Amino acid sequence: MASTIVGKSGSVYIQGEVLQQSFVFKRVPRPFFELSLRLADDNQDEGILIYPYFKDTLLALIKKEPDLSLAGRKKILRCVGEAIQEFHSKNWIQIGVKPDNILVNWSCDEAGKTTIGDVALGSFDIAFKSEHGEPRETPHAIGNAMWRSPEGQTGRGVTKASDIFSFGLVLDLLLLSGDEYQQITQRGISPEQEILTRHFSYFGPAAEGLLRQVGSPDWCDALKEASAMAELAAKEQPERRFEHWGPQVPRCRT
């Protein structure tokens, strides 16, 4: 492979270290494919796609920098929130809002201080265009169980609000428990049950609107059960409720 690559745009790229080489076949919605062609470059002869590189995912960064400053965490949350807002303004539901789909550039100075640079929301393979505000209905839940909204756990009635609930779980990772999938399963807890309980603990009991949206009697019973468990947890730890959060966010664990 040549040390320099000329993209279709005419730009010349200098090859550095090869971090990963793989063949990728992934279905993405047509608008995102067309957008990628505008944001990226390619060289058909060399079989290379050239695109902006981010140093880490949020999940990898938190593992490397568990003591990342509050200011850095807030910047990441703000950038992700703005990305979701832009996405929703075009009537798209991302569905995959989770730490390993959040891309982060960061640097570390000689004193060991980490500074957050650019942040982007990525991975749109299960995104959904809601032309007239209709929810997404699937025969089963899609996406990672750790980051689904309550209705996302059922696969029924997924809307823009579902992304906000998933965003709340990212906030949980950055500011609250910091628990990961492996830690939950090691405690013998179903991830779906744990995440439902957290949703209702933080943001209040299962609303009638949620139950109507889901519709399924079996799923409604499961949501009511998780909601009741969350109510008991909130009585023991009132600070779990979102309305009690302040400048010093409590670090709650189940």
TrEMBL record:
One MF term in the entry's GO annotations: protein kinase activity
Statement: the UniProt record of this protein carries the keyword Kinase: yes
Record carries keyword Kinase: yes
Domain Protein kinase stretches: 1-254
UniProt keyword list: Kinase, Transferase
InterPro entries, per the entry: Kinase-like_dom_sf, Prot_kinase_dom
One Pfam family in the UniProt entry: Pkinase
Region named Disordered: 134-153
SUPFAM superfamilies: Protein kinase-like (PK-like) (SSF56112)
Protein name per the record: Kinase-like domain-containing protein
